[in-house]
Design brief:
mainly beta, Immunoglobulin-like, eight-stranded mixed sheet, five-stranded parallel sheet, elongated
């Protein structure tokens, strides 16, 4: 008898949990009937699926707008979650809009803090989604199988993304990641197993999680924001399509194997001002990458220990003019390196910094006072070139232990700076310079034009160069993107102006916003955003080059 009663109770419980999965329904601003579950003890509700099983598949279609608040029984509730419901009869969770194959777009309000498990699972018609900045968690399988999804923007408050959140999103190629401090992933629990080609890491992001883009072999382009301080271990492990990477000046730590397995990575632009050392050869983030070219920016103060350890393909290194120290074993084992120029800012070179560089026979030191050397810095004897008047100092230093032939350079060098088209812009900086000194060259665009690049591909303007030989620099300019407004989209507007930082546009189809300074230089770039934040820029006048599907417009803005 008791067994029979228990069976009846369980059966009734199953019916109730399935039949009463929601508390009420209401019509959304887009005209859809949505279903809500009251979160116990609060005036908050979660959007839920009205029932379980295939009967409720595709209960909403088209463009859905979720309201921030909804009123029921005289009470106004805040919509804070997209909740999954549990079906005791099947043992499965069902997401809020799971299997709504006719859903093409969804507007998630800023009141929502959680996107639950399987929220949009199987929504094969969903083409794009922006996760608002209010959301702090994205559940397991939230966008599983959204095969029409081509881009996704992760808001800045997200701290956790569940396993397989974007699994089998076969059309997803662009990820805009703005999460300030998102938790780590792992190789076996990963949200982005997708054919992503482009990742834009926003300027608000402070850390890139461990295993962030693990094994995304379709990835070809990564832009790292200027607030990132740490790059997690194995963050880009196995990204075989990645050919170049730029590390911004804000980075202070890079985890082990961060770029290991990037078998196509040949160019590294390293701008981290004061990055911490790597502990040993196996800890190097670039270990076993086929890097041929390293450019160390002018902002960098120190080159970390084991920085480029055993990069056997490395043939070219440019060291910036602010580097004061080169860490131990920094370039050890770079057997293809044949020449290197050490700027006059360097005061010390660590132990074995260039050991194992068996083809490095041409070294130029621009420091008048010889930098101090650790033990076994170089492996082979070669030619050392030094500034005029400093030969004696080098011969009475530890440098003599490595170089039997020394050469003093006293001739002036000629730097020639020209404009590719003077009707578009002018240049300055030509002249005679002593060997090893710094020269500043500048390109100034005429009204209605902007500077593009120098003939060697460098885009810095003004640009500081170290004079080691006669050289010619040609500035190229571009028409139609200057500081003056070019009103191709007269209906495009934004507010406020002047602004203290936050700018909101009157349309949501913006593809890209490029912020230009008074010289026409690009200082900030934002992708797929209807709001941007320029609070980090100095006060003054700027231009915004705004690209939409309909065309391009340029607008002036004042940062107050």
């Amino acid at each position: 008898m008791r067994k029979g009663l228990l069976t009846l109770v369980l059966a009734l419980t199953a019916v109730l949990q399935t039949a009463w999965a929601y508390d009420f329904s209401a019509t959304s601003p887009s005209g859809h009937t949505l279903y809500y579950e009251i979160i116990s003890g609060t005036t908050n509700v979660g959007v839920v699926r009205p029932g379980t099983g295939s009967t409720y598949d595709n209960y909403v279609t088209g463009n859905v707008v979720i309201p921030a608040t909804v009123t029921y029984g005289g009470t106004t509730y805040n919509v804070t979650e997209l909740r999954s419901i549990y079906d005791v009869s099947s043992g499965y969770d069902y997401g809020s809009f799971e299997s709504c194959s006719g859903l093409t777009s969804v507007t998630i309000p800023n009141s929502v803090t959680s996107i639950g498990d399987d929220a949009f699972r199987g929504c094969i018609g969903l083409t794009s989604v922006t996760i608002p900045n209010s959301v702090d968690s994205i559940g397991h399988g939230a966008f599983w199988g959204c095969s029409s999804l081509t881009s996704v923007t992760i808001g800045n408050s997200v701290i956790s993304i569940g396993d397989n959140a974007f699994y089998y999103c076969t059309g997803l190629t662009t990820l805009n990641f703005n999460a300030i401090n998102c938790g780590d992933f792992s190789s076996s629990h990963h949200p982005f197993y997708c054919p992503i080609t482009t990742i834009n890491i926003g300027d608000s992001v402070q850390r890139i999680p461990e295993y962030f883009a693990y094994n995304l072999d379709s990835l070809t382009s990564v832009t790292i924001g200027n607030s990132v301080t740490s790059i997690g271990s194995s963050a880009f492990w196995g990204c075989s399509g990645l050919t170049s990477i730029t590390i911004p000046n804000s980075v202070t730590s890079i985890g082990s194997s961060a770029f290991s397995g990037c078998i196509g990575l040949t160019t590294l632009n390293f701008n981290a001002i004061n990055c911490s050392d790597f502990s040993n050869y196996s800890d190097s983030p670039f270990y076993n990458c086929p890097i041929t070219t390293i450019n160390i920016g002018d902002s960098v103060q120190r080159i970390p220990a084991y920085f480029a350890y055993n990069l056997e393909s490395l043939t070219s290194v440019t060291i910036g003019n602010s580097v004061t120290s080169i860490g131990s074993f920094a370039f050890s084992g770079c057997s293809s390196l044949t020449s290197v120029t050490i700027p006059n800012s360097v005061t010390s070179i660590g132990e074995s910094a260039f050991s194992g560089c068996n083809n490095l026979r041409d070294v130029t030191s621009l420091a008048v006072t010889p930098p101090t050397l650790g033990t076994t810095v170089f492996s082979v004897a070669g030619i050392l070139k030094v500034p005029c008047g400093s030969l004696s100092a080098y011969r009475y230093s530890a440098w003599l232990d490595y170089f039997t032939i020394m050469e003093e350079i006293c001739d002036n060098m000629t730097i020639t700076v020209t404009s590719a088209n003077e009707s578009m812009g002018t240049v300055s900086g030509s002249g005679e310079y002593a060997f090893g000194t710094l020269a500043t060259i500048t390109a100034t665009p005429n009204e209605g034009y902007r500077f593009v690049s120098w003939n060697d591909g460098n885009t810095d303007n003004p640009r500081t160069i170290t004079v080691t030989e006669d050289a010619t620099y040609i500035a190229s300019f571009e028409e139609g993107v200057g500081i003056e407004s070019r009103d191709m989209l007269s209906e495009l507007a934004f507010y406020p102006n002047p602004t203290s930082g936050i700018i909101t546009f009157n349309r949501n189809d913006i593809i890209k916003v490029e912020v230009l300074d008074a010289m026409g230089r690009t200082v900030e770039v934002y992708e797929n955003a209807y709001t941007i934040d320029i609070s980090k820029l100095a006060k003054g006048y700027y231009a915004m080059r705004i690209t939409t599907a309909e065309g391009v417009a340029v607008r002036k803005v004042i940062r107050k």
